[in-house]
Specification:
- The structure holds three protein chains of three kinds.
- Chain A is mostly helical.
- Chain A has helices spanning 9-41, 48-73, 81-97, 102-125, 131-150, 178-196, 198-208, 210-215, 220-245, 257-267, 279-298, 304-327, and strands at residues 155-156, 168-171, 174-177, 248-249.
- Chain A has a two-stranded antiparallel sheet. In chain A, strands 2-3 form a two-stranded antiparallel sheet.
- In chain B, helix 5 (112-120) links the parallel strand 3 and strand 4.
- Chain B has twelve helices and twelve strands.
- Chain B is of the alpha/beta class.
- By secondary structure, chain C is of the alpha/beta class.
- In chain C, 33% of the residues lie in helices and 24% in strands.
- Chain C has nine helices and ten strands.
- The chains are: A mainly alpha, B alpha/beta, C alpha/beta.
- Chains in contact: A-B, A-C.
- Chains A and C meet through helix 1, helix 7 and helix 8 of A and helix 2 and helix 5 of C.
């Protein structure tokens, strides 16, 4: 059978862009809709100062959500990410307050987080234990460890390096913190890893068809381990960003970090079943949640609406994902 | 010989009898153990194990129990508002043979049936820090009068503002919490306004957490940059609020008040982050509670009614007609 | 990549198995089975369920290690400890369930696990994928196979069953250096698409790669196979051609209703 004429390279490229962005267009529209709504109903929403605020309030969960995206793309889930970040803040804070070198303390705290991620990864990849269960177990373990190290309550962390991510510079009337820059940089890095390297393709394949990945020779266990370990590195960095936002190590912080990051990932269009999604969708999902909270406060609407709207968005996102997959069957 | 006994041993009837006698042995052993030690067992159920307020309360109770030669078993809910966990804790303490139970209820009505079951067994139940609803569901309540504490906070805030027209922001705790409601209403009364007064420009829910306090204050300031007085439910929320206020460059323009009186809180007042806080005395609540149970075990005498363990305004900038203690006194007497 | 297959003289044995045996507990899946694949041919492997067909194929592609017997690849003895070793020796397998990631596009699936990186510094240190080259080569392969597909950037799940099969076959064709094994490639397909896949099989053979075709579908076998290996009760019952026996006779040998003359070797 003779081959039919192949579409020109130009058309192919356009098609590719379309396909890639399709998943992100939905959440982007929702974000713009909310922004438009709050811009119209309040006078202060669009001010650069307020926009900067929304971004600052997104930094911690936004960074946790990057790691969560990677894990969910492999059809896993991470319930321990908030706890790992909090443990890192407590460990770093305690060690610095005792007079140790700040850089070493930060490095050690992040390393601790990576170690925990590594353990989770080993259990998931080698013993094939369900990620939900493993991370649930570690949530308890890490939370207990945090309380042990914190010995009671929150404590201030007086160190320039640890709170450096909170320093800011001015850009056209808006405050940009180094934390925001770091978070954005991490998004770019992970975008690159996911779309321009073989590792990224393998991550998608792991979630989309685990068996196929194995059959084509992808080292499944090594890839899974690398995902959980790298995600934990991101959680450690989130701890540094948290200390920058407020230089206080609080064992009570980020109690909903896991669910908040999952919400951001799902609203951003990534499928909970793995194999589909864009990292930029997660950023948009994080911003949607922050915009909602900020906008509702600004317009004086009861904050209970925030939970309601977020819940509806999550269900819509999952429904859209399911419907689009059924259509293409 | 064995052939005939084996079928007997494997019979269901014999196994059942074996089981029943084991249970009998165990249950008779328990009071035996308690009688041997003759140590009074006191149960303490706090709201959570993470709030330093309750951690200090537990530590004070443990110290007092040791002094009195009693044994303290401490339990807590998993999160602020966890009623189930506290119900389960009370039930376990009853089985453990506690003579008295001290509880800071997460839910003033949800805990009632568990308390009743305990009291029906002759166990003394005292509410600490937060009253039940109705208050006489327990034998006695040792607590801060949270309404009065809020009142003091409100008085100070109003006076500190002077003649300026107020723009008040309220950072509340957990919706529906008894303590939260009392402090909130007490503050309003002390400030001289009613709920819904236009002077209140914004309210947020913080669950008493620092990060939510920060986010809430940031958003409120963004909406109403002219806020000049802030009510906070507790010191962690106030710490978060202060970070937002400082970032907005308004540290000198805003009167920030709080309640709790932990060591950190007093230090915040000392550092000028908070203008005033109202100190509570949880250690006193705990110690009094332990003493009451020991007394009950010895003489059968029960405490009753509401025992106000007091509250004290702490500020380094005292105002006329408002009795206050300075931070030096605060650091000596704080519970942190 | 698609054209550098060693052009062996027709008739030379490419893959040979001698007295292969595999037991699972008390069950003997294959019992002293022989196997022979020659250059330039499509060899169909047929047999009823339980005849040992799938075990034989798993041994040939490296997924299962035989208990005894030997295998020779181009005359040299080989042992595969896993499918990757077989792949490295140039044996590609098209699995029955295709082993494609549906959400990913065609080019990505073709090169999954064997991605091409940009030459030089960017590729080595930053692991930058050469997506343009992968797309080009995927396109070229499709054309060489004369297989019609929509844009090379389509997600595999948007393709029809036959097109998906084509993608899996193309993947094997691109990377195979010695032979291709295909497990029930037309099982889920309709008439037209089956025809396309059978064409693909012929094209691959004509390019110099012998094909081992496992199939239940007698008409398809008779349409495309040069020789037929009939597996029965753990052994090779016959090795024949579509010219020597009719479909009915092959089925009869498969089910044991008839015996092949001699040992039916061609």
């Amino acid at each position: 059978m003779p081959a039919e004429s192949v579409p020109a390279q130009r058309f192919q490229r356009g098609f590719l862009l379309q396909a890639a962005q399709l998943k992100v267009v939905g959440p982007l529209l929702v974000l713009l809709l909310f922004c438009a709504f709050f811009a119209l109903t309040t006078r202060t929403f669009l001010r650069p100062g307020n926009m900067s605020l929304v971004a600052q309030q997104s930094v911690i969960v936004g960074t946790l959500a990057i790691g969560q995206t990677l894990v969910i793309l492999t059809a896993g889930i991470d319930l321990a990410n908030g706890a790992i970040a909090v443990l890192a803040t407590i460990v770093a804070g305690r060690l610095v307050n005792e007079g140790n070198n700040a850089f070493a303390c930060l490095l050690f705290a992040v390393f601790l987080g990576v170690l925990i991620g590594f353990c989770i990864g080993v259990l998931v990849s080698r013993l094939s234990l369900p990620p939900f269960i493993v991370t649930l177990g570690f949530l308890g373990i890490v939370t207990a460890a945090t309380r042990l190290v914190a010995q009671g309550g929150a404590f201030p962390v007086n160190d320039d390096l640890l709170s450096w991510t909170g320093n800011a510079f001015n850009l056209g009337g808006a405050t940009i913190t180094y934390g925001m820059v770091i978070m954005f940089g991490l998004y770019v890095l992970v975008w690159y890893l996911l779309t321009q390297t073989a590792w990224g393709r393998h991550v998608y394949a792991l979630g989309n068809n685990r068996e196929a990945a194995r059959l084509v020779g992808i080292p499944v266990r090594a890839r899974l381990l690398s995902v959980y370990t790298f995600a934990a590195l991101l959680y450690g960095i989130a701890a540094w960003l948290a200390l920058g936002r407020i230089p206080n190590a609080d064992p009570n912080a980020l109690q909903n970090g896991n669910l908040d990051s999952i919400t951001a990932v799902v609203i951003g269009g990534t499928s909970l079943f793995g194999g589909r999604g864009s990292i930029w969708g997660t950023l948009i999902g994080t911003l949607i949640v922050s915009v909602l909270r900020n906008g509702l406060t600004l317009s004086g609407i009861d904050p209970l609406w925030q939970d309601l709207v977020t819940g509806v968005l999550v269900i819509c996102a999952v429904a859209v994902d399911q419907l689009s997959r059924q259509r293409s069957r | 010989m064995f052939k005939s006994t084996v079928p007997l041993l494997s019979s269901k009837v014999l196994r059942f009898l074996l089981g029943v006698s084991c249970c009998g042995l165990f249950s008779s052993a328990a009071p035996l153990r308690a009688a041997e030690g003759d140590q009074v067992i006191i149960g303490l159920v706090t709201k959570t194990e993470v709030n330093p307020f309750f951690v200090k309360m537990r530590q004070a109770a443990e110290a007092e129990a040791q002094k009195q030669g009693a044994k303290l078993i401490a339990r807590a809910g998993k999160f602020d508002g966890d009623n189930e966990g506290q119900v389960a804790a009370i039930e376990s303490l009853v089985s453990a043979g506690a003579k008295g139970i001290l509880i800071t209820p997460n839910n003033s009505t949800g805990i009632l049936s568990a308390i009743k079951k305990a009291r029906d067994k002759g166990i003394l139940v005292i509410a600490l820090d937060t009253a039940t609803d109705p208050a006489d569901a327990v034998d006695a309540t040792f607590a801060t009068d949270n309404f009065e504490a809020g009142l003091k906070q409100g008085h100070y805030a109003r006076k500190a503002l002077g003649d300026k027209p107020a723009k008040l922001a309220m950072l509340d705790g957990t919706p529906g919490g008894t303590v939260d409601t009392l402090r909130h209403n007490g503050f309003l009364k002390g400030f001289g306004i009613a709920e819904g007064d236009p002077v209140i420009v914004g309210k947020v829910i913080t669950h008493g957490a620092q990060d939510e306090g920060q986010t809430g204050m940031e958003n409120l300031l963004s909406a109403h940059p002219d806020i000049n007085v802030v009510y906070t439910i507790n010191e962690p929320a106030a710490e978060g609020a202060y970070a937002a206020i400082k970032a907005a460059g308004k540290a000198n323009d805003i009167v920030l008040t709080s309640i709790d009186g932990g060591k950190l809180g007093v230090q915040y007042v000392q550092a000028g982050k908070i203008q005033a806080t109202v100190m509570q005395f949880p250690k006193l609540m705990a110690a009094k509670g332990v003493d009451a149970v020991v007394e009950y075990a010895k003489t059968g005498k029960k405490p009753s009614g509401f025992v106000n363990t007091g509250s004290e305004l702490i500020s380094d900038k005292p105002l006329p007609d408002l009795p206050a203690k300075d931070t030096k006194w605060g650091l000596e007497n704080c519970w942190g | 990549m698609s054209t550098d297959h060693p052009q062996r003289p027709l008739g030379q044995v490419v893959l040979e198995g001698r007295k292969l045996t595999k037991r699972y507990g008390h069950v003997t899946a294959i019992d002293q089975t022989d196997f022979e694949l020659r250059a330039g041919e499509v060899l169909a492997v047929v047999g009823d369920n339980g005849a040992g067909k799938s075990t034989l194929i798993k041994i040939l592609c490296g997924a299962v290690i035989p208990d005894s017997g030997e295998m020779l690849l181009d005359g040299h003895p080989v042992r595969f400890h896993n499918p990757l070793e077989a792949r490295r020796l140039g044996i590609e397998t098209v699995f029955q369930d295709l082993a494609v990631a549906p959400a990913l596009d065609i080019a990505t699936n073709l090169f999954l696990g064997r991605e091409l990186r940009v030459k030089g510094f960017l590729g080595k240190w930053f692991r930058f994928l050469d997506k343009a080259r992968m797309r080009r080569e995927a396109q070229a392969e499709m054309q060489a196979l004369k297989f019609h597909l929509p844009a090379i950037d389509s997600a595999v799940e948007n393709l029809s069953g036959g097109q998906r099969q084509g993608v899996a076959v193309a993947r094997a064709a691109i990377f195979a250096r010695r032979l291709v094994i295909m497990d029930e490639p037309t099982a889920a397909l309709g008439v037209r698409e089956s025809g396309q896949v059978l064409n693909l099989i012929r094209t691959i053979r004509d390019r110099g790669l012998p094909v081992i075709l496992i199939s239940h579908n007698m008409p398809h076998v008779f349409e495309v196979a040069d020789r037929i290996h009939i597996q029965r009760l753990g052994r090779r019952a016959a090795l024949t051609t579509p010219q020597r026996h009719t479909m009915a006779e092959v089925v009869a040998i498969m089910t044991g209703a008839a015996q092949a003359e001699g040992n039916g070797r061609e």
